[in-house]
Amino acid sequence: MSAKPSQLGSSNAATRQLLIEAAAHVFAERGFKAASVREICARANANVAAVNYHFGDKEGLYAEVLKYSLRCAREKYPPDMGLERDASWEARLRAFIHAFLLRIFDDGPQACHGKLLSREMIEPTNALDSLVEEEMRPMAHQLQSIVRGLLGPDAPEETVRRSGMSVISQIVFYHHCRPVTQRLYPKMQFSQKEIDRLADHITEFSLAALKQMSRNLKRK
Amino acid sequence: MSAKPSQLGSSNAATRQLLIEAAAHVFAERGFKAASVREICARANANVAAVNYHFGDKEGLYAEVLKYSLRCAREKYPPDMGLERDASWEARLRAFIHAFLLRIFDDGPQACHGKLLSREMIEPTNALDSLVEEEMRPMAHQLQSIVRGLLGPDAPEETVRRSGMSVISQIVFYHHCRPVTQRLYPKMQFSQKEIDRLADHITEFSLAALKQMSRNLKRK
Amino acid sequence: MSAKPSQLGSSNAATRQLLIEAAAHVFAERGFKAASVREICARANANVAAVNYHFGDKEGLYAEVLKYSLRCAREKYPPDMGLERDASWEARLRAFIHAFLLRIFDDGPQACHGKLLSREMIEPTNALDSLVEEEMRPMAHQLQSIVRGLLGPDAPEETVRRSGMSVISQIVFYHHCRPVTQRLYPKMQFSQKEIDRLADHITEFSLAALKQMSRNLKRK
Amino acid sequence: MSAKPSQLGSSNAATRQLLIEAAAHVFAERGFKAASVREICARANANVAAVNYHFGDKEGLYAEVLKYSLRCAREKYPPDMGLERDASWEARLRAFIHAFLLRIFDDGPQACHGKLLSREMIEPTNALDSLVEEEMRPMAHQLQSIVRGLLGPDAPEETVRRSGMSVISQIVFYHHCRPVTQRLYPKMQFSQKEIDRLADHITEFSLAALKQMSRNLKRK
DNA sequence: CATGAATGAGCCTTCATTCAT
DNA sequence: CATGAATGAAGGCTCATTCAT
Predict the structure, then answer these.
(1) CATH 1.10.357.10: does it fit domain B69-219?
(2) Contact of D160 with D140, CB cutoff 8 Å
(3) pTM (predicted TM-score)
(4) What is the pLDDT of residues A161-171, one digit of tens each?
(5) Could you read off the pLDDT of C49-85 as tens digits, one per residue?
(6) Are D82 and D199 in contact (CB under 8 A)?
(7) What are the DSSP calls for B74-94, one per residue?
(8) Domain A5-64, what architecture?
(9) A34: which nucleotide lies closest, measuring CA to C1'?
(10) C71 CA, E8 C1': Å apart
(11) What's the gap in Å between the CA of D162 and the closest CA on chain C?
């Protein structure tokens, strides 16, 4: 309830958490190098030395931020996407796309998952390795099984893999290239509704492609 | 008369150019903030004060680098892509995709256009506005005319626009998410041949989607 | 009832002692300023705040370390050096030199007396005053009485005092200038045997000087 | 004439020199670790960044200080000590002792050679290696030839070496243990006159020892 | 009583920039 | 015109110390 967390009993964990959330914001906004420990601590109402005390150094804090950001994203958008067991491939694809879009565009004050990942793409840190294994590979598998379901059992593995990437690329694009798309089409806003429409389009485009490709495969 | 004459008479312009090329490299590799004027000058065999002398300040140099990088990319990969006037839409799409991929993956010492753009996506500078108008909007128009050619005249404008983005997203993806794809599939190398195959897949996927969508439109 | 009980009942005094011994080592190795309370506490398996709790502050700990180090040295090398009452002046001189050498080169884990004193020479603290009175003055008197015994009753007081310092200086030298002597003569090791030989030489040199000076005095 | 050296043409070299002299003082007074770049720069009327600009870092400055301090000592107290070629061994010994004492007690504002060396004894840095080779080994040789001259050709090499150290130790002692001697004998001041008397005593003591030892050798 | 958490001053270093030459 | 020298702000980090528990 008070501004200074030191009055609460759990001030240790509380300060730690505040630091992580503040850092997520600052790292997302400025990048690792340009982010300053001082700014992060100021946002968290903590002392300059708090980062070194709790996380060893700036890098340690960053690693913790990435972990936390991933955990948040997973909790908020669980990998099964709340689908029924017997959902059709089409429904699964739509759900996957929709959930991924939401996850990536979530700028909630606690995570900034999308922005942090975008920065990892440009300047990968050691944290990326585990991130790929823990988060991205499972999702890639999930998507590939959907794609295979749609392409049929005769599709070569490579086609499945590449088509999966074609689907994901469309999702990621709107986040990554937002500065360009917003300049190209200023009317475009990423409201909840717009994201829904986006999901519709990506699903439609991808389904069309996959169905047609499936048909092409049978023809051969 | 001085002890250290600047090699040649044209050293002024030459130094300027060397600075820009060195800076392109460093900005691409480290980002604007983390790039240091000292490193740039060292690479260009120039004095520490040279940047401020030639470009006013670090930002001025950065703007010049972006301009130069765009100019290089345009010269190397001209917008018409060397197509004949009467080429089919399919051929045009393939050419567009292929040229774009090449352009984005060109890490030539003089440009680093792809990496610089990637960084602009995450932290847009003032330079992005003109970049969008001069480079991206024309390309977007070009692509949209191709897409419209494939979707047919009845397709709503928005569908054309979004489908264009679906095509571009697939191209951009492999560059932007390279750190992830390389970790997911370590065998994947972006050799010339691989880029060709990539272009084939993106073209195939996109054509399949567009044709199927065109069919869907007619059915209605 | 607490989760981490402090091992034993006597942990208070035990921790104190552990701190002193750890501090002796660290202060000797790094010097007062460069020694960090954290390192000392870590070596003593104690909390960071333990130093301030037990000794007020870093300086308080240091003072206690010096006291302890002196006490240890005294116990191990008692001032009478185990000589018989009726030993000759020559024997006394030899015993004094030998005992002093041993004391100064003792790097036992509990004392580091020599190194600590060396540092006091360079940056005297308040503790030095009492150290001089309690330790050095008695030893100086002891040595001077030996020297007077050898120089004879006619020797002026100042000659006695200075000759005493000439003796002590030879002893101290090998400890203080060890880094240099070891570089000059790499073979030189301060084994027990070597220290014995050292004592022999210093005794021989000093006795020769004192006898000759005594003869010179009588001649006048 | 002005406080700010930037008005002089040679401000670069001037600032450098001022920094070295200020640093010599501060390093001698506080030791390497405890000395602060800020204090050094303040004393030299220079900016905090000046040290890094001129010497790379604190260690670089320290190395330069040691070099400079050695050069000063050499210029002021040249190794030949201004003796005539045919001087007797006794005269040479006296000159050596006197010159060494002066050198070690010189607290001139430019060098602080003695104090810096004392600190090197306690915490040797990389610089000590070359210092030993360039300065101490030549002096040790010089002294040993004098000692051999006095002990005669029959003296074993080791006796010569150790006797040399016995001489040097007496010289060094008064500087190194000054805090103790001054507390033991507060009247003792290291005025020019006192240093002369010190030289007399050390010479007398050493000559007495060497002559007596030479006699002992012959007797055998 | 004894301690884990938190503090703020201080450290060295790097930086883009400016100035006199 | 072009540059080497110098600047001061800001960076991350370590430190001895304090305080509530």
Answers:
(1) yes
(2) no
(3) 0.84
(4) 999 999 999 99
(5) 999 999 999 999 999 999 998 888 888 887 666 666 7
(6) no
(7) HHHS-TTTT--TT--HHHHHH
(8) Orthogonal Bundle (1.10)
(9) F11
(10) 38
(11) 7
